[in-house]
Specification:
By secondary structure, the protein is α/β, with parallel strands linked by helices. The site of (2S)-2-hydroxybutanedioic acid has 9 residues, from α11. Keywords: Glyoxylate bypass, NAD, Oxidoreductase, Peroxisome, Transit peptide, Tricarboxylic acid cycle.
């Protein structure tokens, strides 16, 4: 009898670490105190950052969760969504890497998902279908980003926030207005993720130059939609000259990379795998900066004074406090100056739309 009760106790202890709980292991026994190493690490026993992904069960959320689970900088990974997180969490939690994974389902579990987080990544919301613009997603995604940002303001106001949900040109101002209302706004800690534009630009430019994309660095400034995506081809590293035809081809391909994927997927969504890759790289930079690594430079869409437009993507230096320095745009050629003026007009109206949504 004693042996059976010991086994039951052990099973109950293991079950107490499963999220969602596994009814096969739980039985009727009450769960005694948690003693496993996973518990200690999730309480902050092991060094590492705590990261939450909101929208973790989606097309971006799932591969991004997997990439975050293999990031050694992360000790605790919270996966939140309004559907399917139990399955995604069970699946990812079986990977034998360091991070402890917990799943959270629905608004009543948002507090648990966010409390104590250092970095919150938000890919929640609907994706484009062929024929749609990113702005067509505003009606649904604005409300989703608003309510998730309210959660961040309440439960982890000091976290760094990476916004992926489209239209990024409007959703970042929406989050900012929510944080301002809550009295928690720190412009250095709110970043719109435009890394996919840089990843694409590096790839397409490398193809034209016939080099390895890992050796190419293309600054992409402005915003994250159509003509607001402005690759600065005059500043490509390694320094490279392009013919006017190449500039036209590359600018068009980079600005329409998202649409290229939406059309190829033919109704099954937009970029998810390359986006998860880009978001994971960007998150890694944020975490290395939080750790105190020097010289972390990324392009990001932020509260900015680099132009007269209140939010703008450009190269920034990241540090322990988030955005520590916004780098100047550098010398632009005539084509880039003209394109910048067009981008600014569209950006201004997308920003206004986001701000008005929260203020109404
Ligand atoms: N910034 C970028 O470069 C970039 C790139 C690709 C996609 N996106 C955008 O990212 C978003 C997500 O794309 P996807 O392909 O993963 O879409 P998806 O539909 O596959 O996944 C979205 C997930 O969000 C979840 N969700 C919806 N409402 C939620 C809420 N209130 N709280 C938590 N989760 C919620 C859904 O349940 C779903 O699992 C879209 O808006 C898309 O346009 C941005
Ligand atoms: O194009 C989209 O709708 C998704 C994303 O913004 C992208 O650039 O791939």
């Amino acid at each position: 009898m004693q042996q059976i009760s010991d086994v039951n106790g052990r099973i109950a202890r293991i079950a107490s670490h499963l999220n969602p709980p596994n009814p096969k292991l739980e039985g009727d026994a009450p769960a005694p105190g948690c003693l496993t190493r996973a518990h200690c690490r999730s309480k902050g026993g092991a060094p590492g950052f705590k990261v939450a992904i909101l929208g973790a069960a989606g097309g971006i959320g799932q591969p991004l969760s997997m990439l975050m689970k293999i990031n050694p900088l992360i000790s605790v990974l919270h996966l939140y969504d309004v559907v399917n997180t139990p399955g995604v969490t069970a699946d990812i939690s079986h990977m034998d890497t360091g991070a402890v994974v917990r799943g959270f389902l629905g608004a009543s579990q948002l507090e648990g998902a966010l409390t104590g987080m250092d970095l919150v990544i938000i890919p929640a919301g609907v994706a484009r279908k062929p024929g749609m613009t990113r702005d067509d997603l505003f009606n649904i995604n604005a409300g989703i980003v608003k309510s998730l940002s309210e959660g961040v303001a309440r439960f982890c106001p000091k976290a760094l926030v990476n916004i992926i949900s489209n239209p990024v040109n409007s959703t970042v101002p929406i989050a900012a207005e929510v944080f301002k209302k809550a009295g928690t706004y720190d412009p250095k800690r709110l970043l719109g993720v435009t890394k996919l534009d840089v990843v694409r630009a590096n790839t397409f430019v490398a193809e034209v130059l016939g080099v390895d994309p890992r050796d190419v660095d293309v600054p992409v400034v402005g915003g994250h939609a159509g003509i607001t995506i402005l690759p600065l081809l005059s500043q490509v590293k390694p320094p490279s000259a392009f013919t006017p035809k190449e500039v036209e081809y590359l600018t068009d391909r980079i600005q329409n990379g998202g649409t290229e994927v939406v059309e190829a997927k033919a109704g099954a969504g937009s970029a998810t795998l390359s986006m998860a890759f880009a978001a994971a790289k960007f998150a890694e930079s944020c975490l290395r900066a939080l750790r105190g690594d020097a010289s972390i430079i990324e392009c990001a869409y932020i509260d900015s004074q680099v132009t007269e437009i209140p939010y703008f993507a450009s190269k920034v230096r990241l540090g322990r406090g988030g955005v520590e320095e916004v780098l100047p745009l550098g010398p632009l050629n005539d084509y880039e100056r003209e394109s910048l003026e067009k981008a600014k007009k569209e950006l201004a109206s997308s920003i206004e739309k986001g701000v008005a949504f929260v203020k109404k």
